[in-house]
Amino acid sequence: MIRNYHELTRLEMESVDREKTIVMIPLGALEQHGNQAPLGTDFLIAGAMTEYIKKAVEEADPDFPMLIFPPMPIGLSTEHRNFCGSITFKPDTYYHMLYDIGASLAHHGFKKLAFLVCHGGNTPVVQVLSRELRSDFGLYAFILSSGAFGHPDVKATVSPGNVWDFHGGEMETSMVMAIDPSLVKLETSEAGEPSAFIGNKSLMPYGSVSISWMGEDWRTKEGKAIGIGGDPKGATAEKGRIILETSARELVQGLLEIRDFKI
Q1: Residues 200 and 137: beta-carbon distance below 8 Å
Q2: Are residues 61 and 127 in the same domain?
Q3: 253 and 124 in one domain?
């Protein structure tokens, strides 16, 4: 049975089989997502993804043992700090905050934790943290990616010619529109591309040869730092629903395997 962690009473929590129950912690962020999407895009997606995941997993196992933690609204957003409204922890602050949550869960007897990463910038800290939690407490910290952006059904939502769709682009904007269309202002959107990398064969802002990119690396064709990849103007709520549903569905098998993982 999937329930929200914060809705349980102490007595209800004491009755939970904490050795078998997975605690899912959605990790969002509070950072710029271009002219058109809200600062809380990743936080909103984190909250919505838990609902889509709950529905998809319960279709496979109505008694799936999981508690969903409140989404974390702030993460590691160093790459966006120079854009107005972005908030970031220092890497060590973020690490220790998540470490302390894990330590508390381990103290109460939980054995399995799943970080649902809804902002890519959080991933490096979570990767280090997951090993430390296992080493220090015997707490198995699994890592889930919230966006199946490489899935054919998701890639098909991107408008033809929108080759650089990335952070704050058409896909993420569509996801927000599926959650609350009133928060998106498409009429103010501008497209961005990694101008310093265009024409390169190997060195890119991601991939096998890369450098840690900053938001300023993504610019409009006129050269203005915009901090997003791609052109959001083709975003729709229906595209967002497809992305959210597909992304949740792609996590089901992994969650079933986490459930059955022997510790």
Answers
A1: no
A2: yes
A3: yes
